[in-house]
Design brief:
This protein is mainly α. Helix content is 58%, strand content 5%. It is globular and about 50 Å long.
């Protein structure tokens, strides 16, 4: 599920929490163009602006995940992409906010990192596309010749 439709304190959740969104917010606050990976490194190094930025993003993500869990009641929520696999203030804050919001329920959904890490969305999308092509009988893809490495 993408987060483009979810609202955040500034725009959509995707714009607020994604790597590109983190970098853009950091640049808007500091005037320095950088990457989300560098923002995370600066936060780990003690830069307060970077730390606050990741924590506010984590709060928004944790709230959104808690809302999803309340409505959909899943067994688990799998977190993919770079933030799902990273040990950052964004991830730890998201987990803490989610736990606070869902802690009253003994059977609340567990947050689980995607096994394929940052590549999970890409590989899942590719697999879904191949499955759709091979199941429609369109003849566009010969499933016997697809080799996974």
């Amino acid at each position: 599920m993408g987060f483009g439709e979810f609202r955040a304190p500034e725009g959509s959740l995707e714009d607020y929490v994604s790597g590109a969104g983190i970098a853009a917010r950091y640049e808007a606050l500091t005037g320095q163009a950088t990457t989300a990976r560098e923002v995370a490194a600066r936060a780990q190094g003690g830069a307060q602006v970077a730390l606050n930025l990741l924590q506010t993003a984590g709060e928004a993500l944790g709230d959104a995940l808690a809302d999803l869990a309340a409505v959909l009641d899943p067994e688990r929520i799998i977190i993919g992409g770079g933030w799902g696999a990273a040990d950052t203030p964004l991830a730890s804050t998201a987990h803490a906010v989610y736990a606070r919001r869902t802690g009253r329920r003994a059977d609340s959904a567990r947050l689980v990192p995607a096994l394929l890490g940052q590549r999970s969305g890409l590989l899942g999308g590719g697999a879904a596309g191949i499955r759709a092509l091979t199941q429609t009988g369109s003849g566009c893809v010969d499933s016997a010749r697809i080799h996974w490495s």
